[in-house]
Design a protein that fits this description.
The protein is mainly β. The chain is about 10% helix and about 35% strand. The radius of gyration is 22 Å and the shape is globular.
Amino acid sequence: MNSIRKARTAAAGRWLQAAFCFALAASAHAQTALDDFDPATSGSVSAVLALPDGKVLLGGTFATVGGQAQQNLARVRADGSLDTAFTAEADGTVVAFLRQSDGKVLVGGFFTAIGGVGRQHIARLNADGSLDMSFDPSATGGSSQAVLGLALQTDGKILIAGQFTHVGGAAHDGVARLNTNGSVDAAFNAQVGESVSAVAPQPDGRVVIGGGFTHVDGQSHSHIARLNADGSVDGSFSAFFDASVATIVRQSDGRLLVGGSFGSPRIAVARLSVDGELDDDFNLHIAGARVMSIAIQRDGSFLIGGSFQFVNSVPRKNLARFGADLALDEGFDIAIDGGGFSPIASISQPANGITVLGGEFTTADGEPRGHGARLRDDDLFAGGFE
C-alpha cells in the first residue's frame, strides 16, 4: 500500500511540475510576444519604422504622443516614450517611411512642411532625425496630393508613388523615380492618372505598382501593373484585381505578396509569380477583409495586418502569421482591437529583433495600446533580423 501511495505521490508531483513548467512557458511566451511598448498617440498611426538602435519612428494623424505635443511625425525611445530631441514634426498626415542604407529616412504623406520647412509630400531625414536640407523633389498636383509609397532600387535610386501629377516641376503622374540626390530621373516616365499606393522594384529594373488605378498609359491594368525600366508598361505582366491594392512585398525568391481590399481573384491577399501569375497554392478565405500591410521575416514566414476577423474559419483579429510553407501559424494569435477602416495600417520590417505595429487600434492582446504595439519573440523570429 505504501508503494502505491508513493507512486501516486510521485506521479502527482510530476504532473504539478509539468503544469508549472507549462504555465511558465506560456507566461514567458505571452510576455515576449507583446511587450510594454505603448506610444499612446492621440490619433491613428499610419506608418511605423523600427530603427536599429531600438527607437521607432511613428507617422500618422496625431497631435500628442504620451500626452506631449508632437504633430503627425515622432520618434519614440525603446520604452515608447517621446524622444524630445526629435523635432521634425509634419503639418499633415505621414503615411510612409523608408530607411536608406546610410541611415537616412525618406518620409511620404499629405504634408507640406516638415519642422516648419516647406516640403511637398516627400522629405528626407538625416540619421540624427534632422531634415535633409539638400533633398527637396516636391510632388504636387492633383485633387488630393500625397506620396503614399516609397521604395529603393538596387542602384540606390528612389521610387515614389501616390497622388500627384508633377515631381520637381516635371510631369509625372502617380509614380516617379528620383536620383539619390532627389532630382527627378527623366529616363523614367510612366503616366498612371490615378492613385498608386504601392511600388515594388525587381532586380532587373522593372517595377510593380499597385493602387486604385484601372489604366496605365491608356492601357487597361486593373489595380496592379508592371513597368519596364524606362517606365513604359510591361504587357507581359497580366495580373489583375477587382479593387484597390494597398501593399506589394517582394519575397527573396522574387515572388510577390499582394494585399488590399480586393475580392477577386483572391480575397485581400494573394501571391504572384515573378511574372504575375497567380499562385494556386495560396488561397485564403477571409471574406470582407482588407490587408493593409505585410512584413516578411528572414526565415520566409510573414505577417499580414489589416481589418479581418477570420482566416480560413480560424479566429484571427486583424493580425495573422504564415509560415514559409504558406500555412497559417496556429500558435500565433495576438488579437488587435479597436479602430475603424484600418485597425492595423503598418507593420515594420524587423529591425534589431523587434517588429512594430501601427494603426487605429486601441488594444493588443487584451492590453491597452495607443495605436502602436511591439512584438518581441525569439521563437517567432528565430530566422533572424535585418
